[in-house]
């Protein structure tokens, strides 16, 4: 019933991703706060995984959290995400990965706005933004 997974070798990932995308998506890295290209993006559209193109978030659920990373209060479909316990850096967090390609996206916190109370704190390097064309 689950979706089809994308499996590539590390060599293949290195060929299709930029060095920053590879660091974040494949090595669970984090871009510096307040530096990502989508941190201040206010255009209308969707955010897809930069590794596989799976649409994960929309601009309708993006908000300014003050954290320094793009933040969303909900996902397009939670089944498109994998949530894993992360005990790195001496603390417990919930890691968010793309269910289709396994790419590291960021972390999930429970300090977001209503109606969900969630904050998906996502690296810009792990995303591709697709602007919604205006209907005219």
Automatic annotation (TrEMBL):
Catalytic activity annotation: L-methionyl-[protein] + [thioredoxin]-disulfide + H2O = L-methionyl-(R)-S-oxide-[protein] + [thioredoxin]-dithiol
Gene Ontology annotations for the cellular component aspect, listed alphabetically: cytoplasm
E.C. no: 1.8.4.12
Active-site residues per Swiss-Prot or TrEMBL entry: 121
Superkingdom of origin organism: Bacteria
Record has Transmembrane as a keyword: no
GO BP annotations listed: protein repair; response to oxidative stress
Family assignment from sequence similarity: Belongs to the MsrB Met sulfoxide reductase family.
Protein's recorded name: Peptide methionine sulfoxide reductase MsrB
Organism of origin: Chthonomonas calidirosea (strain DSM 23976 / ICMP 18418 / T49)
Gene from which the chain derives: msrB
């Amino acid at each position: 019933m689950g979706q089809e997974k994308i499996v590539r070798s590390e060599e293949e990932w290195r060929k299709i991703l930029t060095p920053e995308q590879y660091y974040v998506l494949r090595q669970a890295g984090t871009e510096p706060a307040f530096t990502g290209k989508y941190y201040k993006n206010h255009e209308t559209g969707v955010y897809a995984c930069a590794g596989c193109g799976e649409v994960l978030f929309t601009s309708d659920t993006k908000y300014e959290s003050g954290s320094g990373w793009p933040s969303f209060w909900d996902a397009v479909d939670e089944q498109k995400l994998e949530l894993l316990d992360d005990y790195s850096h001496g603390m417990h967090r919930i890691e968010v990965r793309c269910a289709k390609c396994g790419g590291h996206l960021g972390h999930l916190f429970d300090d977001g706005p209503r109606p969900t109370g969630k904050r998906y704190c996502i690296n810009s390097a792990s995303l591709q933004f697709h602007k919604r064309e205006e209907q005219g």
